[in-house]
Structures are given as structure tokens and as C-alpha cells.
Amino acid sequence: MSEDTTVQRLAFWSIFIGMTVLALKYGAYYVTGSVALYSDALESIVNVVAALAAWWAIRVSYKPADRNHPYGHHKAEYFSAVLEGVLIVVAALLILREVWLAWETPKTLDQPWLGLAINGGATVINAFWASLLINRGRKHRSPAMQADGKHIMTDVVTSVGVFAGLVGAVVTGWTFLDPLLAVMVALNILWQGWNVIGNSVQGLMDVGVDTEETMRIRDVISANAGGALEVHDLKTRIAGRMTFIEFHLVVEANMSVGDAHIICDRIENALMQQIPDASVVIHVEPEDEAKLPLGTVAVPFA
């Protein structure tokens, strides 16, 4: 099965998983009347909408480059992640509204153990699916899938906290714990929403690869640049699963175009083997364009 088919299938199944979990969590709220469980269910509504957006964005991102988008459609996934972050913030505000109403009129929970059992089953499903999405999202370099998985994992963490807190509320009879837990859920997902938006905006702003990845790229170039004099002005940017790499390659002025092309091909092939979905642009220059004294280092970087 091809990579794009795998990613799109996972995104499609996320919609049904989200709807199943939503139904279970709403059922837990329905039988208990707990505002904390209501907040948990409300976040699952966001999960379903986010899954739909991620599915659409991933499909668009795998479209081939065309006349209007010569660099492809990879950044579409970032729009999905930004939307998910905004929806998380909206859900948090709605939860805080319900907390205010519940605080004014606290009540004893109905059938708490049944509701907690239903919510616990939904949490187990979410934990499994979130782990799968995060792992596959990293493997296939999909920002939308990773954002979706991290959001669902946040839902898992908050659900565990709600479960533990409501057990305490039922045992002690402290009804104020219910809306208090909902406040904690709202604040937590606000923080996660902010992180999702921030990471997505960085992608839209053409953020470069991290330091470790930059050093790996440099090592690959150095190991395969035999015959060149210098490499400088290395630049990178990330767009979805794509990594764009650009640099200048200095060669002897009398080197033929064919020989310089062989060096470029060797470097490009090595980079694409090490970094999936890499796009490499190499600008060849004569030796008088070198930025460091020639002969000091085999392939120096500037």
C-alpha cells in the first residue's frame, strides 16, 4: 500500500473513531448529568470536526504540483492544524460557560459509576488511536495527522483526570469537584490549542529544520561532495512532509558542466535516501565565489 493511501485511510477512519467516542462520552454525560463529562464530550465534538478537516487537508496535500502550485500542495495540512487549534479554544470557552452555570446550581450526579464506565471505555479507544496517529504522522511526516493525534492524546489525559476526580467526588460527596474538574479540562485544552496553532503558524512561515537535522544534512553533503571545493549558504524549509534544501556548490572554474552535474546528482541522491520527500536545489559556482580560503577544509560550510 502506498504512503498516500495509508495516510488518507487513517485520516478517514479518524472520523468514525471520533464519532464513536463522541457517542460514548455523550452517553456518559447523559446518564450522569456531570458538567465535567459534558466538557469531555464537547471536546470530542472538536475531535470529529478536526478529523474531517485533517482528512480534507491530507487529500489536498497529496495532489501533485500543478501550474498554479508548482511547489505542490503540502502546506494544506497546516491550515487543518490551525483550524483544529481554533476549535479547541472555542470548545474551552464553551466548557467555561457550562462551568459557570453548573457552579450556580450544583447537583448530585445520577448513576455515576455507569457513566464513568462508559467514559473509561471511550478513553481506552482514544488512547489507542491517538498513539497510532502520532506514530504514523511522524513516520509519514504529516503535520495534520500529528496534530490530530496530539489533540486526541490531550483528550485522553483530561479524561483520565476527570475520571479520577469524579471518583473522588462520588466517594466524598463534594459536588463542587465536578465543575472544578471541568475548569481544569478547559484550561488544559486552551494550552494545547495554543501549542497546535503556534506549531502550525511556524510551518506556514517556512520554518527551517532543527539543529540536529541540519547537522545531518551537512554530514550527508560533506560525505558526497568529493570533487567540489566548498559548500555554503545552506538553507532549509519545511512544508508539510516535504523538506526543501538549497545550497551553493563551489567547483573549479575549468570543471565541465557534466562533471559538476555528476557531483550534484551524487549529493542529491544521498540526501533523498536519508531524508524522505526531500527537494534539493544546488547552485553551482566557480572557485572565485568561495567564501573561505581554499584548501583549508575539504568541503567547508558558511
Automatic annotation (TrEMBL):
Keywords: Cell membrane, Membrane, Transmembrane, Transmembrane helix, Transport
Chief location bin: membrane
Signal peptide start-end: none
Family, as annotated: Belongs to the cation diffusion facilitator (CDF) transporter (TC 2.A.4) family.
InterPro entries in the record: Cation_efflux, Cation_efflux_CTD, Cation_efflux_CTD_sf, Cation_efflux_TM, Cation_efflux_TMD_sf, CDF_Transporter
Compartments reported by the entry: Cell membrane
Taxon lineage: Bacteria, Pseudomonadati, Pseudomonadota, Alphaproteobacteria, Hyphomicrobiales
GO BP: any one term: intracellular zinc ion homeostasis
GO MF terms, alphabetically ordered: cadmium ion transmembrane transporter activity; ferrous iron transmembrane transporter activity; zinc efflux antiporter activity
Membrane topology designation: Multi-pass membrane protein
Pfam families in UniProt: Cation_efflux (PF01545), ZT_dimer (PF16916)
Superkingdom classification of source: Bacteria
SUPFAM superfamilies with a match to the protein in the record: Cation efflux protein cytoplasmic domain-like, Cation efflux protein transmembrane domain-like
Sequence ranges assigned to domain Cation efflux protein transmembrane in this UniProt record: 13-205
UniProt domain Cation efflux protein cytoplasmic: residue ranges: 210-287
GO cellular component: plasma membrane
Protein known as: Protein p34
Transmembrane feature ranges: 12-31, 37-58, 78-96, 116-135, 156-174
